Amino acid sequence: MTSELLTVPEAMAVLKVSRWTLYCLLRSGELPSVVVNVRCRRIPAAALDAYVSRLCEEAA
Fold first, then answer.
1. Which residues form the Helix-turn-helix domain (predicted)?
2. What is this structure's pTM?
3. CA distance to 7, 18, 59, per residue, from 43 (Å)
4. Which of 23, 29, 27 shows the shortest CA–CA distance to 11?
5. C-alpha triplet 10, 15, 20: angle, nearest 5°
6. What does residue 44 show for φ and ψ, rounded to 5 degrees?
7. Average of per-residue pLDDT across 33-47
8. Where are the alpha helices (DSSP H) in 1-60?
C-alpha cells in the first residue's frame, strides 16, 4: 500500500494556508501526520482529502 506523503510546504499550498495554520491543525489532531525522521514530518494526501471533506460536510 502506497500513499502519497506531502511535505509541510506542499500541504500548505494544497490547503492555501500559512505554515502557522497548518501546524495548528497538526498540533490539534485535526490533520494527522507521520514523522519519517526526527525532523521530517509528512502529511498523507488522503488526510488532506478527508479534512476538506469534513469541512464541506460541516458547512452544509
1. 5-54
2. 0.85
3. 6, 15, 23
4. 23
5. 80
6. -65, 135
7. 93
8. 8-15, 19-28, 45-59
